[in-house]
Each structure stands twice: as structure tokens, then as C-alpha cells.
Amino acid sequence: MLIEFLNSEQREIVEYENNSLVIACPGSGKTRTLVAKLIYEGAKLKKNEKIAAITYTNLAADEIGLRVNENCFDDSFYWGGTIHSLCTNWILKPFSLFIDELRFGYKLIDEDDAMEILDEIKQKHNFRENVNTRRGADGNFVEITTGSEGVLKEYDNRLKEAKLIDFDLVLFYSFKILLERKSVARNLSQIFKWILVDEYQDTQELQYLIIGEIIKARNNHTKILFVGDPNQGIYNTLGGVAKTKHELESSIGGYNIEEKSLNGNYRTTQEIIDKYRDFQLFGENIIARGSNKNNPSEISFRSDISVESLPEHILKVIMEIHNKRVPYSEIAVIAPRWFDLINVARRIKQIEPDVPLNAMGLSPLCRDDNNIFFHLSRLLLSSPSPDQILVRLKWAQILFDLLVERLPNSFESSFNNKSILKVINSFKSNNQVGIEFLKEGFNFFGSKIGVDFSTSLVFKDSLEEFERKCLKKQARNGTGDSISVYKSGFAKAGGVSFISTYKCKGLEYHSVIAFGMLWGYLPHWNEIFSSNIDENEVSKKLLYVISSRAKNNLYMIAESGRRTTRGTPLFPNRHLVEVFSERSV
Ligand SMILES: Nc1ncnc2c1ncn2[C@@H]1O[C@H](COP(=O)(O)OP(=O)(O)OP(=O)(O)O)[C@@H](O)[C@H]1O
């Protein structure tokens, strides 16, 4: 993404040398500009300096990584990931000794593990509503609703007793370290010349405070770029806030932040933009600027498809689009509930096994950046094709760094990322059971580097943990244990993407087929019944995000025949009905 491929507004943002906030509509090139900024500033860094690119999801971080790799072979000048992984890797892991509660060891738990503990406690307390475990700067929970106090208290005790750290505690302890040990914040500010925050509208208060501490530490030596779109702030139920310029300035110690914007949309046809603008809450008109701007679009809303015939209907739409020479990888199926996506994907596979599906959340592979078996697995499961070389070399480098960390002295001199990749590429197995295939691969790799992972004191626990989590996720998803399900977890796998509503941000497809557009699913009942959430706002934002993923065609479906657990029928999302009522489809 070189600077000459940007328009003048985008270029100005890239070349601007100070803090800025860019608010712009979907498809206006915010991510493209952020990646260009990353590369532009990367070229100016001094030795040991880096740039941090913070994204909301790991998927988005991978996407930025791919875009950087398209332009730079050596990408070591930047660090990319979620704010949780920034905190874990750069603050918590190296400096946990500074915190009394963490000094004698702790265990990080992911969202699944945290949810399991919380669900068990909720059941015990007979509490069915949503419980938010988000914390404030003092470590206390910030959203205690009527009746949830006992649940949260027990959750807190359970974590403390077992020395478990969930995502919210990662943020809290990181903030505490930065606050109490100014040298840590100064050190980070020395390393990170820039912090670039994508989708800033989903940043939580505590996350702003963490970023603010780093910026203040050396008087704005670290510069900041926030990019985002308040209309796409779909995580405000989780505490995401699109701060204003002045609020942002005060969270980084009063330093000036220049507000800038981008105009136009390079992704989508004008026809689709005009449709989704009805869901827009703030901002002005959006003009299509891409080469497809005047293409005819297929836009539809169907509420007459029954839940039973939904998979057949979606398959029919997919085939119609594909027969017009649109690659499968340019088609996305989006829905609010994973469970429904999995069912539809499974049924489509039964009817038409040859249609490639890429259901990232379907894979039982558990992402854990600190577990070498996750990194080893993605190398074993991804194909050594030419278009994957750069990304796999990068993954091999991460694996190499972790192995050097775990096996100091013995590993470094004999291997590098290329030789690791060579070893992995030479692994062959016909095993069709996902976890067995991986275990064979681990043994093979272990034998080549002289380590028996299953008995090694360094690796035994993480191997067991990895296996336990995969099997748990496999059982929960109900997708079976085949190797193909494990392989479905890669973003560029080339099939039709199945994505949940909350994970589709930042992505784009020729055609978007969204189903489950029902009041109660979108917005969710929890949002409808919560006294501090405006369900109409949530609904419009979600519809806006989904629709704005489409470049050319948009098919919305509110299938009939779905019911609540008490048997009450669900009805189509009311904003979709409003927007589509003027036009028959
Ligand atoms: N100046 C430009 N010229 C041509 N294409 C562009 C330009 N800027 C962006 N694009 C293309 O427009 C599409 C949308 O860009 P991008 O994903 O960066 O938008 P965004 O603002 O981040 O969108 P969203 O908010 O929906 O995530 C991409 O395919 C991108 O390559």
C-alpha cells in the first residue's frame, strides 16, 4: 500500500506528523490509510523503535499483517494485535513481578473459560440476565445491575483463589503497572514511536487510559492516530466509546489531536450506500467513488423463507452469484448467532459438498498467542502455496521466537524461521481426525528439534491445555472432528465466509447474505431488556455494519418459523421492515 495509491486526503493523514483522529464512513479507506501510515512511519524509525497497530479483533490484526506483507518483506518494524495482547505481551508478562497478586504466578484465561466460570455461577445464583465483567481504573466492576452483585462477587473470588486473569483483569493490572511504575510506561513510549488504533469507536475507557499513560510518559514522544466511525460502534454494550477530539485529548494528557476526515466510499455501489444510509445515525451523505460505483446491485429483503428451507435458499443464492463468475471467497454469509451459522454451513456441506466454505469460527483451533501449539498448528494446517509463503514465514518467525524463549541456548543457533517452515512442510499424514493429525505433526516436529513435547516439563502443560480446549470447542460447535473442519479456520482459505455479525467489521465482499435478521437476535434480547442500552441504536448500527460490508449485492433475510425458548414467534427486525417497505423485492 504505497502512498501513491492514496487520494490527497488520505495522503495528508499519512504525512501528518502529529496526533490525529480520523472519522470517516465505511469504505472510505481508513484501514488502507492506517496501513500506509504504518509503512510510511516504519521507514523513518530509529534502531529498536517500533509502531504498534491496535485492532479490535485478531482477524483484523491478521488482515493488516497481510496488507503490510504485500508491501514489505521485513515487517519487524511493527507490532500488531488487540489491546489485550499488547497488554499481555508488553506489560503483564514482563512486569507482573511488580504486582503483589501476580508475583507468585497467575494463569491467563480466554473468553471461553471466563464464560464457563460465569455461567456456572449464574446457574448457581439462578440469575439469567447478562453479566458484564468489565472493570474500571480501580479494578471494580463498572456495571453492576440489580441482582448481579452476588454473581460478580463470586466470580471475582473464584478468579482470585485460582489466580486466574481474565481479559478485563489483563487491562486492569496493565493499567496498574503503568500507573505505579512510570519506568514501564517510559520504556514503552521509547519503543513505540506511533500507536495506531483502528476502529477506535470500540475502545473502552480503561483501554484509553492505558494508551494515555504511554503517551504521557515521555511527553507525547509516542504519537497517536485514531481511526474509526461512530456509526459502526457496535461494541458499546461492552463499553466501547467513540470519544470526541476533546475527550481524547484529555485522555492523553491534554496534547493536541487534529481531527481529520475522509470522503467517499471506494467499496460499494451507490445503490447499496443509499439503502444503508437509512441506518446511519450520524454524519453526512456518502458518495460512491470506486470503479463499481454505478454498477447495478441486487438488494433484497426476504421474510418469507422458512427456517427449514433456509440452507437450500442460501445455497441457491450462493450458486447464482458464483455462476456470474464471482469467486466463492467474495461471498459472505453473516448472522447474529454462531449456532445458526454452523447449522446452515453444515447443511450446505451435506447438500453440496463441493462448495468451499470458510467458517473461521467453525474451526476448533483455539487461538492462544502464547501457546506454541497454536502457532505450530496453523503452520501444519495451512497449505504451503506460493501466496501463503510470506504469511507462513511470519508465523514461523513467531513460533521460532517462542521456542527460543522457552528453550534458551539450545534452539537459537540451529534453526530459523525458514528451516522451521521446511521441517513443517515435509510433514505428511493421512490422518483425517483433526486433533490426531495435529498430534502426529507435533511429534514429528518435536523429533526434528529434539524435544518430546508430551514429557517435556516446559511444554507438557501447554500441550494438554491446547488439546483440551480444541476438544471442548469441537464438542460445543458440534462440527465433528475432521481435519477439514480444523483447516476451515484460515481467513484466506478461499471459500464462502461464514461470519458472525460482531466479527464482520472491517471486512468486504462482493455479495453479503445476512440471515437471522430478527428482533430478539438483532438486537439481542439482552440489549432489548437492558435499561441502559438503546436497542434501536444497537439495531441500526448492526444493520449499518452488515450492509456496508457489501461491494455489489446485499441479501437480507428474516427467516420465518423461529421461536423463543418459550415458543413465542420471532418477527423481522423492525428497522429492516421500515427501510424495505417502500420497495417490493
Ligand atoms: N484511494 C483509494 N483508491 C482506490 N481504492 C481505495 C482507496 N482507498 C480505499 N480504497 C479501497 O476501498 C476499500 C475500502 O477501504 P478500507 O477497507 O480501507 O475502508 P475503511 O474505511 O477501513 O472501511 P470500514 O470502515 O468499512 O472498515 C478497499 O478495497 C480499499 O482498497
Describe the structure.
GO terms for molecular function: 3'-5' DNA helicase activity; ATP binding; ATP hydrolysis activity; DNA binding. It catalyses: ATP + H2O = ADP + phosphate + H(+); Couples ATP hydrolysis with the unwinding of duplex DNA by translocating in the 3'-5' direction. It holds the Pfam family UvrD-helicase. The chain has about 575 residues and is α/β, with parallel strands linked by helices. The chain folds into four domains: about 5-90 and about 175-260, P-loop containing nucleotide triphosphate hydrolases (Rossmann fold, 3-Layer(aba) Sandwich), CATH 3.40.50; about 105-160, no CATH class; about 270-360 and about 490-580, Rossmann fold (3-Layer(aba) Sandwich), CATH 3.40.50; about 370-480, no CATH class. The protein has 23 helices and 14 strands. The protein has helices spanning about 10-15, 30-40, 60-70, 85-95, 100-105, 110-125, 150-160, 165-180, 180-190, 205-215, 245-250, 270-275, 310-325, 340-350, 370-380, 390-405, 415-425, 435-450, 460-475, 485, 525-530, 535-545, 575-580; strands at about 20-25, 50-55, 80, 105-110, 165, 190-195, 225-230, 260, 300, 330-335, 355-360, 495-500, 510-515, 550-555. α3 (about 60-70) links the parallel β2 and β3 (about 80). α8 (about 165-180) runs parallel beside α10 (about 205-215), α15 packs antiparallel against α16 (about 390-405) and α16 (about 390-405) crosses α17 (about 415-425). The longest helix is centred in the last third of the chain and has 18 residues, at about 390-405. The protein is globular. The relative contact order is 0.12. The mean pLDDT is about 90. Adenosine-5'-triphosphate binds near residues 7, 28, 31 and 229.
